[in-house]
């Protein structure tokens, strides 16, 4: 169970680094276009990328993983609200942050016995 949690965690961190953080920090069109669609000024792109990076670094470190998950959940909530506001496609765009959040918390639950004690499923 713990190994599965670490594998899922690694996949999530790599996904965010490749699909979200890197495009934002490099000023790629893959990051500019979605920000423009939801109405965020481009001047915040690097800041958002740095916040995502910090959240995922915290999530990857066992001692700070809970804080990273909590902070990333807040960030994902903002993404959900921004996509809802502009009426982006529901299942692919708007709910993606929900899917990612569920996977992130599942990974943390799998890899950390303290989280399993706090949220037992049996």
Report strand %.
under 5%
Please give the count of helices.
Answer: 7
Shape: globular
How would a crystallographer describe the biggest sheet?
none
Report how far the terminal alpha carbons are from each other: 15 Å
Which class of secondary structure composition applies to the elements?
mainly alpha
Poorly predicted tracts of residues: none
Helix and strand element order: HHHHHHH
Q: Count of DSSP E strands?
A: 0
Description:
With 122 residues, the chain is mostly helical. Helices cover 80% and strands 0% of the residues. It contains 7 helices and no strands. The protein has helices at residues 2-25, 29-38, 45-60, 65-85, 90-94, 96-111, 113-118. Helix 1 runs antiparallel to helix 3 (45-60), helix 1 (2-25) packs across helix 6 and helix 4 runs antiparallel to helix 6 (96-111). It starts with a helix and ends with a helix. The model has no long low-confidence stretch (mean pLDDT 97).
Summarize the structure.
This protein has 122 residues and is mainly alpha-helical. The protein has helices at residues 2-25, 29-38, 45-60, 65-85, 90-94, 96-111, 113-118. It contains 7 helices and no strands.
Task: Note the topology.
Blueprint: H1 2-25, H2 29-38, H3 45-60, H4 65-85, H5 90-94, H6 96-111, H7 113-118
Helix pairs in contact: 1-2, 1-3, 1-6, 3-4, 4-6
